[in-house]
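Intended use. Records like the one below are meant for learning the mapping from a protein sequence to its folded structure. Do not use them to infer anything beyond what is encoded.
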Amino acid sequence: MITYTAPLWVGIVIGFIIGAAAEAWGIGNPETLIRLAKWEDRLFVDCILLGAAVATPVMFGLYALGVGFHWSPKPLYVIGVGLGGFLFGIGLAISGYFPGSTWMALGEGRRDAIYAILGGLVGAAAWTALYQTPAGQWLVNTLNFGSVIIGATHQAGKEYLIPWGGLTPVDLFLISLVYAGIFFTIAYYLPRYKGGAHSCLRGTLQGKITDFEKAKRLDTAMFLTYGGLPYDEKSVAKKLNEYWAVESNVTRYYMVSVGAIVGLTVVAEMFLHQIFGESTTYSWMAGALFLPNFKYSQIVFKGIGWEPFSDIGTLLGAFFAATFLTRRFTVFRKNIPPSWAKRFGNNEAIRALGSFGGTALMMFGARMADGCASGHILSGALQMAISGLWFGVMVMVAMIITAKIVYRG
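Structure written out for the chain above:
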């Protein structure tokens, strides 16, 4: 089996690529994720769908050819993962942040990202304290079916999968093709914008765009660039902000390219024998700063890989993209997400409280579930991990319900 273990500093390069790509797509802006929770803009969903549709067959195809990967499907302890996903979704809807997008937002120069990072440390510390209690142990041990993917199981630390019922790696590759086809079909027919009509290739062939979609593109471009740096009419920033990153048709070349870049970068990371996860860094920091002798901190210290390096890379990649490509760097000016301002006004203290509290709850849920949007949803989806799919469903349910309540429909 072909294997290779990269030095930890390579995580900075991997994080840089993902941070720059996701920032260009708009994931670092909390308004993007708040609109996802409101189900108005399904950009992140399309990112995951397209990334998995491209990368999953590549990874399982290489595995069938004898390439070894650092498999990391999260364990499926049904109650803890489900409840963690639900809390994650609530916190996401309030704050507009994932664990990884906090570093992207900091790279964009967003002031409320500072409060989000502090809230993330509090949430991670809270789970560290709860983990060693009877309640915490019950959550992670009840209905725990281990690390399971569609068609196989995995034992921690092993470079191979244990297929179900005599299946072979080639069979898993064939399953991944069907899986990828389902994901691409959903992306193909699901309009990016709520109320939109075009999300598939036939929109490109017809060359049509509705007035509604034109308005959504303009509105998206305005909130992505608000407070950012100026750019001229012939710049890359204009194309990114006013055409590519606001495109309603998610199966056009730009959207598919970015999704593929993100997905294939995660595949490369797993080949290099590391994992793509963002929330573990918060537990590592919280443990080192506040709770070094707690049981959960000791587990994190022992198992931490290049996650802190990849988070540094994510920040640097987002800063590079926001400064030189998209020109969205806000220089830490006051910048309240429009959906938040419409509901709660422009009071920066209230926004800081929402950013801090929402991210604390989101991070608490992430650590309870042992993964976040990176480790569970993105990496999990690429590996066909059942825990990642279950976590993702609970996140979506919770964020949509919360958004309807918090932002009043």
